[in-house]
Amino acid sequence: QVQLVESGGGLVQAGGSLRLSCAASGRTFSSYHMGWFRQAPGKEREKVAAVSGSGRVTSHADSVKGRFTISRDNAKNTVYLQMNSLKPEDTAVYYCNTVEDIVTMRALGSWGQGTQVTVSS
Description:
Helices cover 0% and strands 47% of the residues. The protein is mainly β.
């Protein structure tokens, strides 16, 4: 089981940027596809982006396409989410997780505490 810790959230004005990090334990990190998810107050958790184990293939939700970029550094056991042109509707708790594949993004592991992103207008 991979242990995951999210960080990098904060308060930012609309139009600003943040980079989230998800640090993973374990020596087989590169064998896992990884995904970022988010959950806004009163809403269901939604998929944001996913990256293959090698890092060569990515997918992004339509709502963030062109603004967010997922990447990973397998040498550092870390997956990132670069968020640019942030909007108030991006406000949510962001979580990372291992996923079955980058299309369905079915989460495989337990959910961590996440990191709060708040975008002010």
